[in-house]
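Workshop exercise sheet. Pairs work together: one partner reads the sequence aloud, the other fills in the structure field after running the prediction. Swap roles for the next sheet.
Pair: D.N. / O.F.
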Amino acid sequence: MNLPLEYTKRMQSLLGAEYGAYLDSLEQERFFGLRANTLKISPETLAGKGLFGLAPVPWCAEGFYYDGKERPAKHPYYHAGLYYLQEPSAMASAALLPVSEGERVLDLCAAPGGKTTQLAAKLGRTGVLFANDVSAGRAKTLLKNVELAGIRNAVVLSERPERLAEKFPGFFDKILVDAPCSGEGMFRKEPEMVKSWNDAMLDFCRKEQAKILEACAGLLCSGGLLLYSTCTFSLEENEESISAFLQNHPEFRTHPIPKEHGFAAGLPPLTDCARLYPHKIRGEGHFLALLEKTGTQASRELQQEQGGWEKEMEPFADFAAETLREKPAGKYKRYGDGLYLLPEEMPETGGLRVLRSGWFLGTLKKGRFEPSQAFAMGLKKEEVRQIVDFPLEDGRVLRYLKGETVESDTPDGWTLVCVDGFPLGWAKAQKGRLKNKYPVSWKWE
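Structure field:
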């Protein structure tokens, strides 16, 4: 791999006698990983299915390595949201951020959604999870991954961090920031990133990181925790970014990250932080810093998003009575013709660019209700009266995922299509056939 001369000088200075081992690691095959979505399946059950020759990732209880020759994205279980494809070292940040059920959590730089789905699994459909990405295009990818994972309690936004800090002061218990960076830890995975590395990029990233951290200072409640991570090795974007932030915000302090599984200490004096190098771990590389905002002030109570049952929602009540075991409990809200179930303690979001406010149930259309794909993915088969559950080897599974009409003796009406008990989407049963409602943009290619 042809690395920029200035980069090699920096890494030689940083690593000393380990520099040769680092260079050797770049010539080896990269590691591939996937993480079980515990909203749908346990790691043990997933591993027990014998997929892809899985081996555990030591720092993430839900994470597995798989052989790069295999294609887990081309499997029906991927389309059922049972796992997320994620670079192994990238699993570390959300794994290390201690999130408890019922908390208010923010993933500030969330796209494409790996860490968001990881945090959502920790919340277990309780509390509220804000997932934000300033790029509108990347936020759409984030939204699809949120829906695929069956997350019910997420608010997906595309906003500048400072706007969120103005809107939600002191609101969040936990914040994860996977900051924009020069991506030095991705050189083996994405060699084209080598070409874009230069001092101008480092300077740009450093300034963006400072702005993001400044916003976090206002967003986090006293006693809250902030996990800052990058996929780069540069001192400027890691320890120096954190040092500058701590100097400006003495109310924050570092928490030690265990130095196990090959994790190295951060550079002095920030040895509480952790560095993940590709010559020390089976992964590409990361930097991790866990910070606490000291003080005794509890998280702020903000005005709640208004909602409640309306007469216009009656078509959904009719649908629920016919199709579901029981109508989901919670606060309902209409945005246009879309019907949503809001997360617990969701604050008012007026004036922000919001792509999704909780669980999108479907669309109200002229006295009828059309269920959404997000609704299907957030359900369990036990919650639905009428399902068709195809075994994995049934050819109708792939035909359904390709958008085709398939045969079934299911009684007429809305039907949840499953594979091995896991929802894939909706169909409308009519006269021995399933009229396919799988979204065009999701279809198997």
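Discussion prompt: Residues 92-378 form a domain with the Rossmann fold fold (CATH 3.40.50.150). What would you look at next?
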